Automatic annotation (TrEMBL):
Keywords: Auxin signaling pathway, Membrane, Transmembrane, Transmembrane helix
PANTHER family named in the record: PROTEIN PIN-LIKES 2, PROTEIN PIN-LIKES 6
InterPro entries: Mem_transp_PIN-like, PILS2/6
Pfam families on file: Mem_trans
Compartment(s): Membrane
Species assigned in the record: Dioscorea cayennensis subsp. rotundata
Main location class: membrane
Protein name: Protein PIN-LIKES 6-like
A Gene Ontology BP annotation from the UniProt entry: auxin-activated signaling pathway
Bilayer topology term: Multi-pass membrane protein
Length: 416
């Protein structure tokens, strides 16, 4: 029976429990795999090869987000979850919320000290506070579990449990991004991020000129829906539409979120689970097809990420300035994870984490130590600060290769 390089090293090193050398190997090798595939994507997008063009990377990102990632979430989360596990896993979405709160508070402190250029104060808070709780952890779990001698045990169970835990928290992350982040990244009053350098700050006089022009338009449109207002049903519909618009429900209903909700619903109902998700189910061919497609998610997203790095940070870095950029990178990758370790350790002592489930605790720790969320970059594009967000994502992901390896070594030391 073949033995991996890691198992040979583990057997050859004396000492109680897992050695420092094997721990470092387990932590560094997944990062090395990620870096290698990203490098290939960067090479494919370079001017020397030019296979992954900008349009090609956009299509690849769309394919991952709309098909491959939802398929992986649906199959892995649906097979792993039950009604009992749904109640046992309640701290995963709670951890995402706590990670957002602690990260945003650290971002607020750092932004108050650094004082980023106007109007990037709230932008700086968001870049520090919102981490990637989906794509990057899924890639790392896949790389770690791929080795048969991984510390979490059976490779298939390791991958299924890890992906299920990560997917279970993604719907909360989507809600946070399209409510809290969307509000925080609003452009400055009376202007936009793009034109802030050339335009003066809005004054009281200019504001007074605009308001009277808008007032008659609002008044003239009020009496039009007379029949709708006279009906109680019409009022309820209007309020529901207004609520949906305020909560950004349309933006929240992204394919990964829909896949998570469907997986939870089908997974906790025994009849539906036995009909679709069980290995002997009559419609298991659909689940198996999703698993096949989901396996392509990790290489595709890494190739796209590596291809995006070929363009460099762009013009966004100059707008933020070196001081602000360094503060964001250091705060996100160095200051935020220790706060997460404190939160997870306290939750473990309070009994919020299932006993003996080391993968569960590892995923919770990963949620605090990831680089800035890619999804908030999409929201930043909608709000007019996409170039600045792209610059942050570039530098954060470059340095995250080293920081993630260090934090994973620490996490393995805590768990094993």
């Amino acid at each position: 029976m073949e033995r991996s390089l890691i198992s040979v090293v583990m057997d050859s090193v004396d000492g109680k429990g897992q050695s420092l050398v094997s721990t470092i190997l387990f932590a560094v090798l997944p990062i090395a795999k990620v870096f290698t595939i990203c490098f290939m994507g960067c090479l494919m997008a370079s001017k020397y090869v030019n296979i992954l063009s900008a349009n090609g990377r956009k299509l690849l990102n769309g394919l991952v987000f709309s098909l491959l990632l939802p398929c992986l979430i649906f199959a892995q989360l649906g097979q792993a979850i039950t009604l009992q596990k749904l109640m046992d896993w309640w701290f995963i979405p709670a951890n995402v919320i706590l990670a957002t709160i602690s990260g945003s508070l650290i971002g607020l402190i750092v932004a108050s000290i650094v004082r980023p250029p106007y109007p990037y104060f709230k932008f700086t808070v968001i870049q520090i506070g919102i981490g990637n709780i989906g794509n990057v952890p899924l890639v790392l779990i896949g790389a770690i579990c791929r080795d048969n001698s991984n510390p979490f045990g059976d490779s298939d169970k390791c991958s299924q449990d890890g992906n299920a835990y990560i997917a279970f928290g993604q719907w909360v992350g989507a809600i946070i991004v399209y409510t809290f982040v969307f509000h925080m990244l609003a452009p400055p009053p009376g202007g936009t991020f793009e034109g802030i350098e050339n335009e003066k700050l809005p004054t009281t006089a200019s504001t007074n000129i605009v308001v009277p022009e808008k007032m008659p338009l609002l008044i003239s449109k009020e009496p039009e829906p007379i029949e709708l207002e006279s009906s109680r049903k019409g009022k309820i519909i209007r309020r529901l539409c207004y609520l949906a618009e305020k909560l950004k429900l349309k933006q929240m209903c992204q394919p990964p979120v829909i896949a998570s909700i469907l997986a939870i619903i089908i997974g906790v109902i025994p009849f539906l689970k036995g009909l679709i998700l069980a290995t002997d189910a009559p419609f298991y061919f659909f689940t198996d097809s999703c698993l096949i497609l989901g396996e392509a998610m990790i290489p595709c997203i890494l190739l796209a990420l590596g291809g995006n790095l070929v363009d460099g940070p762009g013009a966004g870095s100059s707008k933020l300035g070196l001081r602000t950029m360094v503060a964001i990178v250091v705060a996100r990758l160095v200051f935020v994870p220790p706060a997460g370790i404190g939160i997870v350790t306290l939750a473990d002592k309070l009994g919020f984490i299932p006993k003996g489930d080391k993968m569960f605790k590892f995923v919770l720790l990963l949620q605090h130590s990831m680089p800035t969320s890619v999804l908030q970059g999409a929201v930043a594009n909608l709000r007019g600060c996409g170039k600045e967000a792209a610059a942050v994502l570039f530098w954060v992901h470059i340095f995250a290769v080293f920081s993630m390896a260090g934090w994973i070594i620490l996490f393995f030391g805590m768990l094993f």
